[in-house]
Amino acid sequence: MNLCGFIPWCSTLFVLAYLSACKGDSRLASVAHHNESTLSSSDDGEDLFDADDTDETKTKLKDAPSGEELRSQGSSQWVFITPFKPRIRNDSMGRGAFSELRNRGLHVGLDFEMPQGTALLSPCDGHYYRREDNNGFGKWVQIFCKVPTQLDTTSSLYASFLFAHLEVITLKNYKCRPGTDPEELSCTVKKGEKIGDSGSTGNAMFSGITPHLHIEVALQTSFQAALDEAHQGKTDAPVPDKVGKLISNIKTNCLKKNGFKSDTLVNIANKIDPFLLLICGGATLPSKAGPGKGSFGDSLYK
User: Is residue 16 part of a domain?
Assistant: First the structure.
């Protein structure tokens, strides 16, 4: 039976399907000519688009705020990155506290214990990079935030947040890789927007390691320096004067205000304790307790 004889718009659907296929070919052609730089030489040529990269996604990217608009929005307070009060990983393979001694040196981030598939949120209005093939970090997202004015009165500091071991990345623009221009590619993210789900990718997949989010944050004195931050765990980087003043501000004002111990270690070089920076940057700690066996994040500092 010829259904098109009974459904007048059927032929229109075939035309639309054909045009969609042609559009897909042109996208693949553009991918073939795309040249990008990466953090790791192990990149196996991951496609820059997937089945979820729809016209709607591209429209949202095209209509995203400009870099200058995001810079001005970045002065507002941050939000917390998980839907519950997180615990610090503590399993047979180690403890996930900031400055914890590891085989390769000091731990310059935090490991928040959480079930796989936990939603992760952007702390700010900013820009992002994403990768899915790093041997150590697994699937990861890097978000660049302007430091809130309550911490940085000069409005000149930027924070590079690294979210590692993700199961799924929900930020869809695959072109947003290290070495590209995130403003040119509209690699923008909104404060509180979901960036992905936690997981156990990279070296977190080994037996004995509890599923967790590894989060790091490095402070830089310019947007470009934040983009160049490779999060390689270096503990001997010089601390610029402006970063030093922010650290002093946290020690003098934020620790006492939140009931934290005055001798709390705030930084290792330009790497700042992510929990402290989020709280001091205005993020409200969720009241709902997260699952797991580790101690709660705020209890480390009291």
Answer: no
Task: Tell me whether strands 126-134 and 194-198 are parallel, antiparallel or unpaired.
Answer: unpaired
Question: Quick one: how far is CA 5 from the chain centroid?
Answer: 53
Q: Looking at the domain assignment, is residue 103 inside a domain? A: yes
- The pTM of the full predicted model, rounded to 2 decimals, is 0.75
- Residues of the domain holding 281: 47-301
| Residue 143 forms part of a structural domain | yes
CA of 270: how far to CAs of 158, 159, 193, 231, 274, in Å? 11, 10, 26, 11, 12
CATH of the domain at 102: 2.70.70.10
Does 13 map to a domain? no
Beta strands in 210-289 (DSSP E): 212-220, 267-268, 271-272
CB 195 within 8 A of CB 122: yes
Report pLDDT for 137.
Answer: 94
Residue 101: C-alpha distances to residues 7, 95, 105 (Å): 70, 9, 6
Q: Quick one: 62 exposed, middle or buried, by C-beta within 10 A (0-12, 13-18, 19+)?
A: exposed
Is 87 in a helix, a strand, or coil?
strand
The rounded mean pLDDT for the chain is 79
User: What is the total count of domains within the chain?
Assistant: 1
37 Cβ contact list (under 8 Å, min separation 6): 177, 178, 179, 180
Say how many C-beta atoms besides its own lie within 10 A of residue 272's C-beta.
Answer: 27
